[in-house]
């Protein structure tokens, strides 16, 4: 489902920083994998490359049987739109839109009819146990509820790949545990490939497989 071969990512400024250094990685369809490491180890860079948000300096990335090198920017946009759901630490909900409207937004951008998009959004809000909050604005929700809305939005197209960047980083431990349980439950139901980037070992341990990065290289690959 996800393959990286010899992937290096360098950032050039006053000096060159190697964020990833000749990384080889394969993640199978339906796996749930965590990626851990200290700040600056390359976790977010790895996620951005898997998510087609950035391009490697060398090497190549393959998503669902399709290599990304050589694709035009508009083709990468379609890969993200049709294949990948993103969950971010800071929710990134639009404050003037209701929960339902936030979840339906990716569907409107794909040209779905208003009623069809609204019906799917209600279905997803029910899936994350927020059906009764569909008409609320984000500011009327708790942090955990906002993250549930963000998860519902990420699932709008039922993507085969779900990428989460520190999904509990802005939540207290109890609410974070609820979100982790929800992600695990959705993984079982939808059989999506899930990759969670985290610095928290507790978060990592919900995944059957953990990749450890240090200085841009994979130094551990543990399966439970």
Explain how this protein is built.
This protein is of the alpha/beta class and 224 residues long. The protein has one domain: P-loop containing nucleotide triphosphate hydrolases (Rossmann fold). The protein contains seven helices and ten strands. The protein has helices spanning 43-50, 73-83, 99-109, 114-127, 143-154, 173-190, 201-204, and strands spanning 2-12, 16-27, 32-36, 58-63, 66-67, 84-87, 161-165, 193-197, 209-214, 217-223. The strands form two sheets. It has a six-stranded mixed beta sheet with strand order 6-7-8-3-9-10. A hairpin with a 2-residue loop joins strand 4 and strand 5. The radius of gyration is 17 Å and the shape is globular. The model has no long low-confidence stretch (mean pLDDT 91).
